[in-house]
Amino acid sequence: MSRDLPALRASHQDRDRTVETLQVAAADGRLTPEELEARLESALSARTLAELAELTTDLPSFASAVPTPKDVLVIDQRGGKYTRTGRWVVPRHIELRPKHCTVTLDFTEAVITADTLLIDAALRHGKLLIISPPGLVTLDTDDLTLVFSKVKQRSNGGGDATSPRLRIEITGTLKHAKVIARAPRRRLFAI
């Protein structure tokens, strides 16, 4: 007896892949925020592969174009700068181990696939710069130990801070280091 594949029941992984495809499409401007919200709701309640396929038939396949996020990104650099900017897939966990290094994580165009990012920090003599548009991320540093260090969140005004898309939890220890969270700089255009 042959089975019709789209009539098969969808798994959690199938729904997660569809959600990621929809989020990437929205980040590219292919879906409006209203369309994204409606399709995400349908994806999360879909029972079959056919229902999921309907939500992405008018979108390009991102399976090969977008890398899947690694569960853990390890940043272990000595000196200089480490930067993640542009369109990058945000993992669920970052191990931050640099020394004498400035690490920049720019979430302006990042593809966010989870609602929480855990950063386990062991930062010495350096800086972690978190750049995000207003209302996109919220920072939780309650479990961060500071030794001759500081955390500075610059008010970036605007945005809906009550419902951020990404919660960043930073734990671990900073020694002679700092964390700065700010909005992207405005670009001035020459006429």
Q: Briefly, what is this?
A:
The chain is α/β, with parallel strands linked by helices. The protein is built from three helices and 13 strands; from the N terminus they run αααβββββββββββββ. It has two domains: 7-56, no CATH class; 72-182, no CATH class.
Secondary structure elements and their pairing?
Layout: H1 12-27, H2 33-45, H3 49-56, E1 72-75, E2 81-84, E3 89-90, E4 93-96, E5 102-106, E6 111-112, E7 116-124, E8 127-131, E9 137-140, E10 144-147, E11 150-153, E12 166-175, E13 178-182
Parallel strand pairs: 1-4, 2-5, 3-6, 4-7, 5-8, 7-12, 8-13, 9-12, 10-12, 11-13
How much β-strand is present in the residues? 25-35%
Low-confidence segments = 1-5, 63-68
- One letter per element, helices H and strands E, the order comes to HHHEEEEEEEEEEEEE
Number of helices: 3
Q: For the terminal residues, how far apart are their CA atoms? A: 68 Å
> What is the tally of beta strands?
13
Q: What value does the average pLDDT take? A: 83
**What class would the helix/strand composition place it in?**
alpha/beta
Tally the structural domains.
2
Shape: elongated
Sheet of most strands: 6 strands, parallel
Question: Share of helix among residues?
Answer: 10-25%
